[in-house]
Amino acid sequence: MTMAKSDSDAIVHDPKGGMPRLLEIMRRLRDPETGCPWDIEQDFATIAPYTIEEAYEVADAIEREAWDELKGELGDLLFQSVFHAQMATDKGLFNFDDVANTMSDKMVARHPHVFGDENRDKSAEQQTADWEKIKAAERAGKEQGGTLDGVAVGLPSLLRAVKLQKRAARVGFDWPSTDEVLDKIIEEAGELREATDPDHITEEFGDMLFVMANLARHLKIDPEEALRAANAKFIRRFEGVEARLAERGKTPAQSDLAEMDALWDAVKADEKIPD
């Protein structure tokens, strides 16, 4: 039910309005007669990329320990949920309360050792196993009988590869140790070296990345986190190369690979010098 204009204005401009304020702002933005034209035109598909982007910005703020920024980034991510819920309300599918209640029901059901009668005195490993049993039962209720059913297609490919492999490992489809994974990496590298046409090269490169994700899982490494760290290291070192070139009055475009490679090694060496 839409509230009166005066009541709506009051909550929209209430700096302590909390969640009701945000929901009313979103409703007003999507109002077909008085809302924002851009917001009105959006649908689930057009907003989904922004949702993914905001989730990454939350992760970035946490990684940088930018706690002052985190509040705003979490707000941006929350707004994405509110936006999707309002679009669902507009279509008569569900509303924000339904979203919150669904999550609450799920958390209560998945934590019987907190909200039920189960004993809390069990290991993290046992809790994880119990969690997976409950999730498997939920998938069965959704007629997702296959081992790999329910792994979201929209996940980043590297993360989805790990999740698919974890699912397969639960039913015994997994290498027993990292040795076999490393052997497979060598095999895939050889196949990539032998590939010639573009489609075959792309296929073999994909196989290589998939096995690398499997190695990360066996090593208990988050491949996304490892790659983010590698990206940050590359940026740091390349900026060091640029700084040293600037001292010589040059830019990378005015240099060559041999000079930049030598400067790269110098930057690496300086990183290893203790304070």
Would you mind describing this structure in some detail?
By secondary structure, the chain is mainly alpha-helical. The protein folds into three domains: 5-109, MazG-like (Helix Hairpins), CATH 1.10.287; 146-221, MazG-like (Helix Hairpins, Orthogonal Bundle); 225-271, no CATH class. Helix content is 72%, strand content 0%. It has helices at residues 5-12, 18-29, 37-41, 44-63, 67-90, 96-110, 112-115, 124-141, 157-170, 178-194, 198-218, 223-247, 257-271. Helix 2 (18-29) crosses helix 5, helix 4 (44-63) packs antiparallel against helix 5 (67-90) and helix 12 (223-247) packs across helix 13 (257-271). The radius of gyration is 25 Å and the shape is extended. This is Nucleoside triphosphate pyrophosphohydrolase.
User: Given this structure, which CATH class of the largest domain is correct?
Assistant: Mainly Alpha
Look up the CATH topology of the largest domain.
Helix Hairpins
| Share of residues in helices | over 70%
Please state the average pLDDT score.
91
Give the biggest sheet.
Answer: none
Radius of gyration: 25 Å
Give the second-level CATH assignment, the architecture of the largest domain: Orthogonal Bundle
Provide the CATH superfamily of the largest domain.
Answer: MazG-like
C-alpha end-to-end distance: 64 Å
Overall tally of structural domains: 3
Derived structural class: mainly alpha
